[in-house]
Amino acid sequence: MQPITLVRGIELPSLDQPGTKDLWIVGGRIFAIADAGEMPREIDVQTEIDGSHLVGLPGLVDPHIHILGGGGGTGYESYVDGPVVEDLLKVGITSLVGSLGFDSTTRTLPALVRKAKALGAGGIGVRCLVGGFNFPPLTVTGDIRQDMVVVTEVVGAGELALGDSRGAHLTDTELAGYAGMCFTGAMLSGKPAILQIHLGDDPAVFERVARVARSARLPASMFHMTHVNRNRDMMEASVQFGKNGGLLDITTHLPQAANGPIPAAEAVTALLNAGVPDTQITVSTDGFGGMRVDDRPIARYVPSPVSGLLDCLLELWALGMPVSQAVKFVSTNAARYFGLVDRGLIEEGASADILLLDNKTRKLVGVILAGNLNGTPES
């Protein structure tokens, strides 16, 4: 018999009809969300959690994180390692999308897939992207389409750098062909069609990608434009792309620069006020890149933080945004877009990935990952 967990009397504000519920978990999935006392008393519960002092929210989904680690842009001392499961759970991340990014030289796609499988074995929902900053794209099998068909975790390509001196300098025809391979791979594999674009400082990239999509008859929705909050010019240029169906990704940790970056919660609010639908916005951390922490001649580097998703959610909540909307940006939208269909939401049949917050302080006190409790949600 599969183990049964009951979280009794927990507040679930992200539901369509929020309220205090009993949450039943069987075999790592949400079996039932019921009013108190609704389920038969004779059910044999192995684990019971008192939820009377808790708020339950969907586990966070990070659509842009460097699971092999990052850095390398200023030499060997700037490299940092990637996360283990515990690093993610302590900030509420239960699912993610990993990519190589800037360093596709010393870090390889087979290593990325291996790391994705390792995190998946620990219960994390994982997808990954082939390619990287450069063109032609790196692949596992020699072809993006074949990667998507034969490698379970692969759902597309990226982050392809445009408008950035470190990245790809490809023609519109090459960009259309690159995106077309992702689109065809999605058709063959039944996965989402995704090309994630790393944005430098050139606002013209949005119109360029839109033009290429139109000419190649490709959907704007397959382009995931990350770092849109790098500065205010990029934010303004992104609005029409989002209104036309493209997906805009706000980064919680970006280097300080003139005119930016725009803080994540502020950026979400600005895009909504500009008319971008709330279904077209995600928030990611770009976490575990190399971050310099001092100015010594031989500098010290640490992984960039991944706490920003939870911080953004709590700030939007504190500003009065309904939780059912706020969780879209840090969880539900990314899960849907990257094919993590049973993650990023609290509903019957979904993976039991649930953040447990103290209902007074809103501090994260525990995480249920695929039905397993991590942390001690004491009253």
Features:
single chain, alpha/beta, Urease, subunit C, domain 1, 2 domains, eight-stranded parallel beta sheet, four-stranded mixed beta sheet, 27% helix
CATH class of the largest domain: Alpha Beta
Shape type: globular
User: Low-confidence parts lasting 5 or more residues at pLDDT below 50?
Assistant: none
Structural class: alpha/beta
Number of domains: 2
Strand order of the largest sheet: 6-7-8-9-10-11-12-13
Please state the average pLDDT score: 93
Residues in helices, as a percent range: 25-40%
CATH structural fold name of the largest domain: TIM Barrel
- CATH second-level architecture of the largest domain: Alpha-Beta Barrel
Q: Give the C-alpha Rg.
A: 21 Å
SSE blueprint:
Elements: E1 4-12, E2 19-26, E3 29-34, E4 47-50, E5 54-58, E6 60-65, H1 85-89, E7 93-98, H2 109-121, E8 125-130, H3 144-150, E9 154-162, H4 172-189, E10 195-199, H5 204-215, E11 223-226, H6 232-243, E12 247-251, H7 264-273, E13 281-284, E14 290-292, E15 301-303, H8 308-318, H9 323-337, E16 354-358, E17 364-369, E18 372-375
Parallel strand pairs: 1-4, 6-7, 7-8, 8-9, 9-10, 10-11, 11-12, 12-13
Antiparallel strand pairs: 1-2, 2-3, 5-16, 14-15, 16-17, 17-18
